Amino acid sequence: MKKIALIAAVALALPLAAMAQDAAKPAAKPAAKAASSSTAKAPAKKHQVTRKAAKAVEEVTPINTDTDVTLSEADLAVAQRVSIGKAQCELGADVTVTPDDKKPGFFTVSTKGAKYRMHPVESRTGAIRLEDPRAGAMWLQLGNKSMLMNQKAGLRLADECQTDAQVAFAAEMKKNPPKALFDGADGEKK
């Protein structure tokens, strides 16, 4: 019986002791802060770079053209199919894809405030895929549209982008839609 009473008393005392310790801690911290603030200088004010200034610097900073990527013959064949020039995108954005004259198979992909040095990467789906592994950017080009994505941040930077050739391809798809996956040779659904 004495053991049960002792256990009950300890069980009741433990939460009270913990609350007493927690109450004592905040009182000690302000005193420590007051003592340290009288001897230390105020921290220097940090200057933040505005988004506009960062964009301006990014636009004039040349992209790094040195790369350790070696393209295969298959990669160079994919590079021949890349749609180059200015692509108009949704929401008034645009993306310009320019081939590198000095290094065949490499491209500069630029949009408002950003430039990427990209090269073709094999795609299982047959889509044309350009990547900038350093920046984490990817340009995905289909027959009728393209998109620019930042894979590191998981964002689409530009969507529904179309060059003149892709606009023509999309119009042709509307006139002559491709056969559905389950259509037979005669167009009948199976």
From TrEMBL:
Region entry Disordered: which residue ranges?
A: 34-53
**Compositional bias per record (Basic residues), positions renumbered to this chain:** 43-53
Superkingdom of this entry's organism?
Bacteria
Its signal peptide is 1-20
Q: Which UniProt keywords apply?
A: Signal
Protein's name in the database: Uncharacterized protein
